[in-house]
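To close the chapter, one final illustration. This time we ask the reader to focus less on the individual chains and more on the assembly as a whole: which components sit near each other, and how the overall shape emerges from the parts.
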Amino acid sequence: MEDPLMDLVPPEEYVVLWSFTGRCSEEQLSISKGDQLMVHAKITPEWWWAELRGVFGYVPANYLSQGASEEEEEEDAWQDEEYYSTYGTLNLHLEMLSDKSRTETYRRVIVDNSASLHRKVVMDLGCGTGIMSLFCAQLAQPAAVYAVEASSMVEHTRELVKQNACEEVVTVLQGRAEEIQLPEQVDVLVSEWMGNCLLFEFMVESVLLARDRWLREGGMMWPSSAALTLVPCQAHQYYSEKMAFWEKPYGLDFTPLQPLALQEFFAKPKFSHLMEPGDRLASPADVICLDMHTLQVADLEEMQGKFQFRLDKSGVFHGFTAWFSVCFNSLEEGGAPVELNTGPDSEPTHWKQTLFMLDEPVSVHAADRISGSIILRRNPVWRRHLTVTLHWDISGHTQEAATCQAGMKSFPMWR
Ligand code: GJV
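The assembled structure is written out below.
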């Protein structure tokens, strides 16, 4: 048989249209709808040799596409129908409003800036039930607040504005921020757009587009900047619940299920993780910083950050924990900024933290160094999704020699 390497072409990126479960015995890959993979060789018209998250195997060619083209597909790529319908019921609004740390921070920003907001024009992008707009109208004296909301919640928002006697100041506009028309430019654009790992959902794109259309020159973005923070950590409890569990349940050896467990529990990041203070192996570091006044939509396609941690204790390196913070600059020259931090040292928020588990835990020692990079790649088809890739090098010293161990793992969020 001919060597398949003979057919090598430059690898090409494809996206998976339908999920497929491969057979290990035939060297096939299991792939999920929306996965991005690299095709290295088109071995036969039916079966291509591809790489997904560092693993090679055969995939059925007719399950792959080189990207969305038709308009209909593009709309679906934002999953807007599904997305906005989840904001049409109370559930998520209740979760956001019950998050005191989040909601009180936005209120604090308005209170601290109430004098400067006098006669200013404000846009509240994705106002939901209208809470920020109501804060503005009641705690400051803006000239106007335009509350923009695309979900059907907007019908109730109008009523709430009336009920709280703010209809003179607050105008509720129904529609997507990308499409609505405002009667004037605004001085302040306020929005609560942050998702898990900061970018998930990519509502930030709507905010940037609205900024470029409606924020007047020199206007203020709230939040004004955002940062993603990372720390190498232990996760004994999660590891034992999902992976060590199979070692001896009821005295039986279930370890053949561990590869399944790896795929099912550790392939994607764990949202809503609460990192215990004792689980961190080093001091956290900001790896990606965004300036909301200068950030461009094109920048969102790929963001990269580097890190170098020096471990302050020995333990087990199970993975990385990530969270974000945002900062609201003062409208007054020299005024103090307000920060909202979703990390483990701050008051908990509904975002909690995000845990990225390695495939295998690594024993590490105080003074070891973990350096590397994080890349957030936006999914080319599913525009609200992304893939997070972590590269790391662990270097340390034993009495005899220097040691070094490298690793890499990609995590789809969610597709
Ligand atoms: N235009 C109008 N409303 C929007 C848009 C948009 N482009 N995008 C999101 N929303 N922090 N991850 C609305 C959405 O319907 C919901 O009510 C709110 O903004 C989401 C805010 C929290 N999501 C987040």
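The chain has a mean pLDDT of 94. The radius of gyration is 24 Å. With these observations in hand, you are ready for the problems at the end of the chapter.
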